[in-house]
Structures are given as C-alpha cells and as structure tokens.
Amino acid sequence: MAVFLFTSLSGLDSIREAYFSGPKTEESAIEFNKMMSETNLSTPTHKAYFGAALALKAKYGQNVREKKEFFVEAVEYIEAAVKAEPNNIEIRLIRLSVQENSPRIVKYKTNMDEDKTLILENYNSQNSAVKRCIKDYISNSDFFTKEEKERILN
Fold this sequence. Notes:
- It is built from 8 helices and no strands.
- The protein starts with 10 loop residues before the first helix and ends with a helix.
- By secondary structure, it is mostly helical.
- It has one domain (11-153).
- Helix 2 (26-37) runs antiparallel to helix 3 (44-59) and helix 3 (44-59) packs parallel to helix 5 (89-101).
- Helix content is 68%, strand content 0%.
C-alpha cells in the first residue's frame, strides 16, 4: 500500500512528488486527483498537473464514455498550460508524460519529440526540483534513448 506524505512538502513540491515519484496505481491516481481537486489552479503549472490528474483518472475510468470525457478535459487543461507558458519545461514534461502513456487510439502523441528536445536542451537551466522530476521521469521512460538517459542521469 502506498503512503504519501504530502503534508511534509509544500505546495508545488508535494504535487511534483506525488506525480513523478509516486507509484502509478489506481489508488495513487485517486489520491493525486483528490489532491489536485483541492489545489488552487492559479498558475499554468498547476493547471497542467490538474490535467495530468484527469488523464490518470481517465485511465481508471469506469467505462469508455467516462474515460473519454476525463481525457478530453485533461488535454484541454494541459494544452492551455502549454499555450500560456510554452517555454515552461515542467509543463512540457507533464505533457510528454501524458502523451507517452496515453493509448494510441486517443491520438495525443504529436508533441513528444518537440517536448523531449526542449527538455533535453533546457535541463541544465532548471531548478533542482524540476531537475529531480525530469530525472524521475526519464529513468522510467521508454521514449528516451540510452544516450539521452545517460546524459541526464549521470
């Protein structure tokens, strides 16, 4: 059973920890969605994480219609965040993570190469919290090459 210690972290740090470091189970998706539904969506980054929470909710939806509704809403939040801050690497990482893990049938994979390039090119200029998210994500991603992983993880 996963136990999340959200209270020991502050705001965005706890959101990052829950999304990038937490196990991807139905239970953790429910907890993350609950966390995001109680979060003020005052920044594009928060909106992108809310979209990611909806995408996770879609993954565990009860039926096809519910899954589609949650996923469509997820994409709207994520794309609005990207539009508001197109050079925000954390938002691009969120979008990449959703696109990489979305089923092909939803056809939401068109920005993966663009986001990966931006993430790799701007990794060194990110703060330590965002770098940690990038490392956590890349270490478990099949989309990054061995060389790209070595460049970031070492």
